[in-house]
Each structure stands twice: as C-alpha cells, then as structure tokens.
Specification:
This protein is of the alpha+beta class. It has seven helices and seven strands; from the N terminus they run αβββαββββααααα. The strands form two sheets. A five-stranded antiparallel beta sheet has the order 1-2-3-4-7. Strands 5-6 form a two-stranded antiparallel sheet. Strand 5 and strand 6 form a beta hairpin. The longest helix has 21 residues, at 124-144.
C-alpha cells in the first residue's frame, strides 16, 4: 500500500464525478471549477510521516479541504499559479476555506475530518466512496453558499469563523475582514463603504506591502 493507490482511486472514482459537476482543471490531489469570477477548489490533503505519527494516522489517510477564490478580490501577497491561462489557487490561498467530515465511525480515529486508510489499504474504497458523497452533497452546497458578493458580505459582517465549516477571513471584526469587505463593497458599487473598510485595513498596519492609501487599494481592483 502507498499513496499512489489513493491517488488512483481519487482519479478513477472522484474525478469523473467532479468533471460532471463542471470541474475542469486537475492535479493529483486538487480540482478546480470556474464559475464567472469564482474559483471552487477541492483538495485531498495528504500527510507526511511526521504529521501522520503525531495524529495517529497512516500516510495514506486523507482529509478534504474546500476553498472559494474570487478572482476580482486582489490577493495580498501570494502568487497564484495558473494552468491554460486559468488561475489555480491552492486551497490555503483562498479567503474562504472549509472542510468535510466522514459519515461513518472508525475505531482507529475519533476525529471525523480525516478518513483513516488502514495500513493494508483494505478500507480504501469505503473511504473514497464516502468522501465522494460528502463532496457531491455537502461540498457543492458549501460552494453555492459563497457564490455571490451579497452572500459574502453577509458572512463577513455577521458570521463568526467556524473551524468545522467556514474559516479563513478572521474574527469579527478583524483587519482581514476589513480588507475583504473593502473589495466586496467596491464590486457591489458601494464605494463609500469600501473606503471605510479600506481605511480600517490600513489603520491595522497589516497590509502595508499591498497598499498604504485608500486610493491605492481601489486601484488594485481596477
């Protein structure tokens, strides 16, 4: 048993389902879907031997991470890779991140955000099929909840981060939320509100490598 077996199962059982749902760019462990200015990311997380030992899992075990990336919200520092002229952000580069959990009990592991693959690989198909169902059911719904700027604005203004469901944008309030709200309000045509949020981001001192004035922040979106 090795990780190549897991990769093969992902390729044969998961990728066709994702293609049917509009995902069009793939690497061994990542999939991307393009919907207007939104990029949906599905990542199968692997574990090196050190992390696997710490968590009490095998290196063949996996987690599933989700990311929602908006191409019209400028990134702060990261360089986003592209493929066939399409952006391929890593899940951790997305401002909105989430994860999935398995639906069946495993005696080897209490936590639900990792699918434990046994050392002999005897349960790999059970793990992959459950992962597929979670992506197609909960995962796709998760992406839809982040589809519009109005929905994102509501999340940034009103909702706390939840490491079980949605995170990546900081506590409420936070400089990170101010940064994101500035660009969201700008795309919604609310420049006055955008300016207020950008000024809050500037006052935090967290984004000096990206911009130092409100006008500089706005220019990055043009």
């Amino acid at each position: 048993m090795d990780s190549k077996v897991v990769n093969r199962y992902i390729r044969e059982l998961i990728r066709p389902e994702l293609k049917a749902k509009g995902f069009s760019q793939f690497t061994t462990r990542n999939s991307w879907r393009y919907r207007g200015d939104v990029v949906d990311v599905v990542n199968f997380q692997s574990f090196n031997s050190y992390n696997a030992d710490v968590m009490g899992v095998t290196t063949y075990s996996f987690g599933i991470n989700l990311g929602s990336f908006h191409v019209d919200i400028p990134t702060e520092h990261d360089t986003i890779k592209s493929k066939a002229d399409l952006p391929c952000p890593e899940e951790f580069q997305c401002p909105f991140r989430g994860g999935l959990q398995r639906t069946f009990e495993q005696s080897e592991l209490e936590r639900k955000d990792i699918w434990f693959v046994k050392p002999d690989g005897s349960n790999i198909e059970e793990c992959i099929l459950d992962a597929k169902e979670q992506i197609l059911n909960r995962g796709l719904v998760w992406f839809e909840s982040l589809e519009t700027k109005e929905a994102i604005r509501d999340i940034l203004i009103n909702k706390p981060e939840s490491m079980d469901e949605l995170w990546g944008f900081g506590r409420n309030p936070s400089p990170r939320r101010s940064y994101l709200l500035g660009y969201v309000e700008l795309k919604l045509g609310n420049e006055s509100m955008a300016r207020t949020h950008f000024q809050n981001a500037i006052n935090s001192g967290c984004f000096s490598s990206a911009f130092n004035t409100v006008d500089e922040a706005i220019a990055r979106a043009l």
